[in-house]
Every structure is written in C-alpha cells, then in structure tokens.
Amino acid sequence: MRKFLLLVLAGAIVIGLYTYVTPKLSQHGTIPWLQDIRLAISTNENPYTNNLSSVEQTILNVTSNKCKRELLLKGELFNLSKTDILTDLPLDVLNSHDFLPVKKGGFYEPENCEPLTRTVIIIPYRNREKHLKIIINNLHRILQRQQLKYGIFVIELSLPTTFNIGVLMNMGFLLANNISEYDCFVFHDVDLIPLDDRIAYHCDVSPKHMSAFNTKYAKVNIAKALPYSAYVGGVISLRGVDYKKLNGFSNAYFGWGGTDDDIEIRAKAAMIPFKRENQNIGRYYALPHQRDTR
C-alpha cells in the first residue's frame, strides 16, 4: 500500500512539473506540437483537440490566452530571392503603411491576448529622415504580426559632433528602462529593413546577431553576406540582464566602426558569446546611403 501511494505521489509531482514547465519551454519554440496547436487555434481548426491527454489539455488551456505569432510572408519584399534584393528597391515599395494604430510615442500591445514578449527597439539616428520613415513603417508591420508588446525608441545625437553610436544605444537602454519593463532589447541600424516575417524580434538566452544576411555585403560576396566572421553589426538582440553583464556599449568610439567589435569581445569575455540567425531568415535590405564624413 505504501509503495502504491508513493507511486501515485511521484506521478502527481511529474504531471505537475510537466504542466508548469512545458508552457515555459514552448515560448522558446522547443515543443513543435504545441506550436502547431497554437496555430490551429488561431485558425479555429485544431486537429489535435480530440486526441489530447488530460495533461496536454491542461497545457492547452494554460496557453490558449497567449498571442500567436503570424508567420506569414506578406508583400513584395518577403518573396524576394537573395539575388533579387541585391539591386536597389524602389522606396514606394518599402514605405507601406499597412499596420494597426500605435500609441503616442511608438508603443503597441495586442488587445485580445497576452503578448509573447515585451521588446524595445532602439534606433540610433541622425540626418536620415527618409530611412527612418521606411524602417519605422516596416518594423510596425512585422512586430504587430509577431504579436509583441513593443516600443520603438529613436535616439538622436543633437550635438554638432562626430557620430557616437555607443552613447546613443546606452541612452536608449536607460530611457526604455525608465519608462517600462522590457524582456528584450533590439539595437537596430536605421538603414536595415527586415525581409522575412520569421525574423523573431525577441531574445534568446544568449545575445543574437539578427542581420545574418546584409545586402550591403552580399553585393561583394553573396555567399558570405557579412564583412567577417566575428561581425555583429547591424541588428542585434540582448536581454537586459546580459546588457548589464556586458556593461553596455563602449562610449569611446566616435565615427564609424569599433563599437560592434567591442561588444562582441565583451560578450566572449563574459562567456555569453553571440549566436547568429540563420541566413535564410535573418535577411535585411540595406538602404543605400553615404556615411557621416565628420
């Protein structure tokens, strides 16, 4: 009798842990069948409902109020091949406005479900008004389809001095933390347009280099599409806790270059090196521009 009771107790503990842990893991994409259930719910066609165990049904009930990412390739940009996007694209194609209204200041969150994550986009900026309008329009579209709670912060250097991207990104981080709590911080060049809905604007357990295929460098080498193997410039994502471990970005680099190499070195030294997005997903179109000469 005692053995039987112990077995029942052990089973209850296992089921409890499974019920609690599984939804947590599913947020990181580690349980494919649960992702399929979520997609089925979003279309009201759930092929799994009749075949669920009691434990799986509990998991489904817990996660049903979570937002579902729309992994839909929409518009002209999202169907372009790697070779097609090596030519300059017309700005009217890039500057579309098919996104839902946002709150004053660039904030948005889904109304009918619990956001999968809270993300802030930090864009260092100066004298790129055309580029800024394009990136803002495209980011709103993709972030809303990913059902995120997000804010977009444009940080402008107003002093008449050489551009310092590290200072701007650090100020963006401090400002965003002052306004709300965020799970993920994405530091985003103003001239890089995401080309694929599958680029996840949320953080992994380690820093991620998101812009794995950059058309600026693909014009030189389409197979590589990056200037060198340790490059983490363009678009990166960091959890707040990791940002603090790295002590943010260096404020010492004026002009172009150095800041992204510095953060990559800091990440290795802190034993949380960058991972790189799959090149077939992390595709970004680089708007042509001239560098700041000052």
Question: Helical segment tally?
Answer: 9
N-to-C order of helices and strands: HHHHEEHEHEEEEHEHHEE
The proportion of residues in beta strands is 5-15%
Q: How are the strands ordered across the major sheet?
A: 1-3-2-4-8-6-9
Helix content: 25-40%
The main sheet comes to:
7 strands, mixed
Number of strands: 10
Description:
By secondary structure, the protein is an alpha/beta fold. Helix content is 35%, strand content 14%. It has a seven-stranded mixed sheet with strand order 1-3-2-4-8-6-9. A three-stranded mixed sheet has the order 5-10-7. α5 (129-145) links the parallel β2 (118-125) and β3 (149-156). α1 (2-26) runs parallel beside α3. Mean pLDDT is 79; it is low at 21-50.
Key features of this structure:
294 residues, alpha/beta, three-stranded mixed beta sheet, 9 helices, 10 strands
Secondary-structure blueprint:
Elements lengths: L1 H25 L5 H11 L11 H10 L27 H4 L12 E2 L9 E8 L3 H17 L3 E8 L8 H15 L4 E5 L3 E3 L13 E2 L3 E2 H4 L16 E5 H6 L13 H11 L5 E2 L6 E4 L8
Parallel strand pairs: 2-3, 2-4, 6-9, 7-10
Antiparallel strand pairs: 1-3, 4-8, 5-10, 6-8
Helix pairs in contact: 1-3
